UniProtKB/TrEMBL annotation:
Annotated segments matching region Disordered: 111-130
Keywords, ordered alphabetically: Cell projection, Cilium, Flagellum, Membrane, Transmembrane, Transmembrane helix
InterPro entries: FHIPEP_1 (IPR042194), T3SS_FHIPEP (IPR001712)
Record Pfam families: FHIPEP
Identification of the protein by name: Flagellar biosynthesis protein FlhA
Originating organism: Vibrio variabilis
Domain of life: Bacteria
Segments traversing the membrane: 12-40
Amino acid sequence: MQYGLGFSEALQIYTLLTIGDGLVAQIPSLLLSIAAAIMVTRQNTDEDMGQQVVFQLFDNPKALTITAGILFVMGIVPGMPHFAFLLLAALAGGGAYWMHRKQKVKEETKNLPAEAGGNSNDPAAPPKELSWDDVHPVDVIGLEVGYRLIPLVDKDQGGELLERVKGVRKKLSQDFGFLIPAVHIRDNLELTPNSYRITLMGVAVGEAEIRQIKN
């Protein structure tokens, strides 16, 4: 009545205005939720927030591909501004394709052999630093037994040698005041069936044969 509109015309206009006002009112809360999510889920690195956001949005082409698809769908919806949405979809799709090609070229260049396209006068690559992976483990104290002595060290066959070795280690550690290294026991088919060998740092220091006496 105030603007001289008919009932149906006023209903149509004020329905659109109500929906639009509701959508506009949700934009600040949406942006606030996105900002809070970024703050909570950000990685604890030396990079600042802006660098991380740019890296996550534009380093992986998947993000721009999904964005291009959503913009394209919105652009073909009747009543939407087709030119703006389709243009943004084309820009996002072009950016995703460019980043995909860039990453593919980077991977191909990385997988090329070192001598490909190189110069013979280029300085050699620096030697790799040594690490513990280059050191083969050696048992401090080792006990090797023949196959007939395996029942002595196998708990399933009633062997008590492991428990007795632990007891001796505990007693010697208490007497000497330092921890005796663990004794690693393994079978050795190179030994005679009833023989055993004691090693220190991989070097054999004693070897003998157990003779079984039958009553």
